[in-house]
Amino acid sequence: MKSVFSRRGESGASALYDIPGPRTRRRHALYGVAATAVLLGLLGWLVYLLFDTDQFTAAKWTPFEYVGIQELLLRGLGNTLKAFAISAVLALALGTLLAVGRLSEHRLVRWPATTLVEFFRAMPVLVMIFFVFIALKVQPLPALVTGLTLYNGAVLAEVFRSGIASVDRGQREAAYALGMRKTQVMAYVLIPQAVRAMLPSIISQLVVALKDTSLGFLITYEEFLHAGKLIASNLDYDLPFIPVVMVISPVYIGMCMLLSWLARWLARRERRDPKAKAAATPEPGPGAPLQNTASPAH
To answer: How far apart are the first and last CA of the chain?
Structure first.
């Protein structure tokens, strides 16, 4: 009697469940249609509310045609990308340093690194940003970058540590058997193999860092969200809060979706089996005639 496991691969069945039958497929299709109808209904209701509250009137959208408003938004977007770029680089560096400390065989190095990782992972990002900004009296950009670096660096340290630990133990033992030092084993054996497994998680964490740059709005850092607030609150007519949100949100969503797409692409590449390219070899040609080296018989 064939089990579910033996049928896997023959007809596409999973190891955990069989292929749904005709009735189940019809039921699933009905669920899909109902869910789509509900989502379209919600979207239609939202659009109706926007029109009913006059959110698409010319008075609320005309300010976006002004050069000053456009420059303010572009400057805020540039500040957001600058804070993200600095935070990402510093977080990657801090994560690498803490991961190396956590993997150290010396307790005096491993324990402090573990303590820092657990502390900064548990501490809310906003609390760290406010502490640096208010208690230490640091400027908005360094305060935002510091908070993002400490939190995301601690998370990335765990990503690095788990990625290196996922490499087969035999790889490490084989490298030591060849006489390699610990630094060489880490640099030439473990890290190259772990990078492919770590990249999707690293990029996913960078998506979090990009979204968290909007917290700079709370400490008056002139990033993208702060620019939108200035536009919505300083105009003397109609207070276009909803139009500002409708302009800013797609930009944030687009940047995050771009990084998320990169993470999914890397994950798909990781799931595919690596294919070795065969070395090009020349086609066989006619060889030289064999020489008769045997001595003549007497």
So the answer is: 74
Residues 6+ apart with CB under 8 A from 139: none
Q: How far is CA 240 from CA 46, 246, 251, 254, in A?
A: 17, 10, 17, 22
220: left (phi over 0), alpha (psi -120 to 50) or beta: left
Nearest CA among 261, 265, 263, 258 for reference residue 81:
258
Q: How confident is the model at residue 184 (pLDDT cuts 50, 70, 90)?
A: confident
Alpha helices, DSSP H, located in the chain:
4-7, 22-52, 58-61, 67-102, 107-122, 125-130, 140-165, 169-177, 182-185, 191-212, 224-234, 241-271
The CA distances from residue 225 to 70, 176, 210, 247, 290, in Å, are: 14, 52, 12, 10, 82
Rounded to the nearest angstrom, the gap between the alpha carbon of residue 152 and the centroid of all alpha carbons in its chain is 11
292 Rama sector, left if φ>0, alpha if ψ -120 to 50, beta otherwise? beta
Tell me if the pTM is above 0.85: no
Q: Classify residue 134 by its DSSP letter.
A: I
Q: How confident is the model at residue 271 (pLDDT cuts 50, 70, 90)?
A: low
Question: Does pLDDT of 294 surpass 60?
Answer: no
Residue written as token pair 């993997």:
103
Q: Give the CA count within 13 Å in the CB-facing half-sphere of 217.
A: 14
